[in-house]
Amino acid sequence: MRHLAIEVGPHRFIARLEETAAPQTCAAFLKLLPFANQAIHSRWSGEAVWVPLGDFDTGLGFENHTSHPSRGDVLLYPGGFSETEILFAYGSSCFASKMGQLAGNHFLTVVEGSEQLMDMGRRVLWQGAQAIRFSDLGER
Question: Taking the complete model, does pTM exceed 0.70, yes or no?
Answer without folding.
Answer: yes
